[in-house]
Amino acid sequence: MFGLSELAIILVVVAAVLAVKKLPELTRSAGKSARILKSEARAARDADEPGTPRVIPGETVGRKDTGTGNDTGTGTGTGPRG
Fold first, then answer.
1. What are the percentages of helix, strand and coil residues in the chain, rounded to 5?
2. pTM reported for the whole predicted model
3. I need a labelling partner for 9 at 20 to 30 A (CA). Which of 30, 56, 63, 70 fits?
């Protein structure tokens, strides 16, 4: 007679054979769920530590570097002067 472990293995193999078309979708969903759970756990951990500042990488843009065209250059460009 079969033991419990052999019966479990047979059931897993039968389920895999019958649901072979759905397995990639199920594994993708499981991966997405794991990533969401991991990011939520990280966010909850960061919320528990209010003393640490949150740093967002980027660069500081000065007033001359905003690209508005109102800089005080050498006057070699074309356009109205005022």
1. 55, 0, 45
2. 0.38
3. 30
